[in-house]
Amino acid sequence: MSDYIMDLRKLVGHRPLLQVGASVIVVDEKQRILLQLRADNDCWGYAGGSVELDEEVEAAAKRELEEETGLCADKLELFGVFSGKDTHYTYPNGDEVSNVDIVYICRKYHGDLKPQLSEVKALRFFALDEIPDNISKPIQKALYQFIDKTKQGEI
């Protein structure tokens, strides 16, 4: 959790916060996508997190990718901006957020997979037809849209 969000939580407790996120869908050379098993809700998702004050969104996406997976993005491509009721979420600790998630696709990267132990239980590449059922709720819309567009040859 970002310092900014932690400071706000001290003031507002668990009440809903508007939160800007930067996320990355990593695609390998076999067209599989990287997912991480989250430690907080035991669901799968892609790398991402909160944008810090005055941080550029693309820089936040690269930072979150490296922190959570050990991979460094060489190139990011904007996929989309996701918001609304589909991205509203209550964390297991009771913190509630209304997310605006800016999602990138990364096909060019380097580094070795290394999960951030405090947030990530496992990292694994999945074929598009092998995506696990337990996908973290606030990313479902973006992830399934990515899968659909990829299967239709739109991206």
Distance between the termini: 31 Å
Number of beta strands: 8
Radius of gyration over alpha carbons? 15 Å
Mean pLDDT: 96
Helix content: 10-25%
Q: Overall 3D geometry? A: globular
* Structural class estimated from helices and strands: alpha+beta
H-E string: HEEEEHEEEEH
Major β-sheet, in short?
Answer: 5 strands, mixed
Low-confidence stretches: none
Strand content: 35-45%
- Total helical elements: 3
Describe this protein's structure.
This protein is α+β, with helices and mostly antiparallel strands and 155 residues long. The chain is 23% helix and 39% strand. Strands 1, 4, 5, 6 and 7 form a five-stranded mixed beta sheet that branches. Strands 3-2-8 form a three-stranded antiparallel beta sheet, with no helix packed on it.
Considering the chains and any ligands shown, give keywords for the structure.
23% helix; three-stranded antiparallel sheet; five-stranded mixed sheet; 155 residues; globular; alpha+beta
SSE diagram, text form:
Elements: H1 3-12, E1 17-26, E2 33-38, E3 44-45, E4 47-50, H2 57-69, E5 71-82, E6 88-90, E7 96-111, E8 120-126, H3 140-151
Parallel strand pairs: 1-7
Antiparallel strand pairs: 1-4, 2-3, 2-8, 5-7, 6-7
Question: What would you say about this model in short?
Answer:
The protein is an alpha+beta fold and 155 residues long. It has helices at residues 3-12, 57-69, 140-151, and strands at residues 17-26, 33-38, 44-45, 47-50, 71-82, 88-90, 96-111, 120-126. It is 23% helix and 39% strand.
